[in-house]
């Protein structure tokens, strides 16, 4: 059940991001500096039994700063739990995809990310347009995804070969109650998330998701890379 809840949390991020955001054209240019990586805390070689790689799901805390030191975001706000992100899933900035590879559990890094690999030419919240940003990221755990067929079986609660909106919504509500994942505890918002997921995946518009249609949701195959269970 915990693995399924983490899958759903990651899926929500993918669905919302894929529908609501477009990649910044400025990120396609190749004439800007790379991400600078500074290791702030490094585990011993003996303690580093696994390093992060593309498609891994990472459990992290982060703090974000502008170049002048002004904080603009933090996963630690209000005592929140660490969050889950997946490398290479297009749900995080490119600077994290680059800067969080080959990282050990217990390691903490400072990433200096130029606009090309951050938010580009558009302002985002308290981050002005064309800003270089700094993130301090602490890694707590490394996980992988689960296979598409396995994920489908876990979501198909009545085992009829399809996922309906009730099954999908019930799992989201159960995950939201844990307070561990970024899922709103609001029936209206959960309903909107379900609606967006089915708009993206339900190609024949019959109100059901087949295993093939589940795989059509943008980014889902990256989330479900066949590795360790979440």
UniProtKB/TrEMBL annotation:
UniProt enzyme class: isomerase
Signal peptide start-end: 1-22
Domain (EF-hand): residue spans on this chain: 148-178, 189-224
Organismal lineage: Eukaryota, Metazoa, Spiralia, Lophotrochozoa, Mollusca
Alphabetized InterPro entries for the sequence: EF-hand-dom_pair, EF_Hand_1_Ca_BS, EF_hand_dom, PPIase_dom_sf, PPIase_FKBP, PPIase_FKBP_dom
Protein name, entry field: peptidylprolyl isomerase
Keywords: Calcium, Endoplasmic reticulum, Glycoprotein, Isomerase, Repeat, Rotamase, Signal
Transmembrane segments: none
PROSITE patterns reported for this sequence: EF_HAND_1, EF_HAND_2, FKBP_PPIASE
Catalytic activity: [protein]-peptidylproline (omega=180) = [protein]-peptidylproline (omega=0)
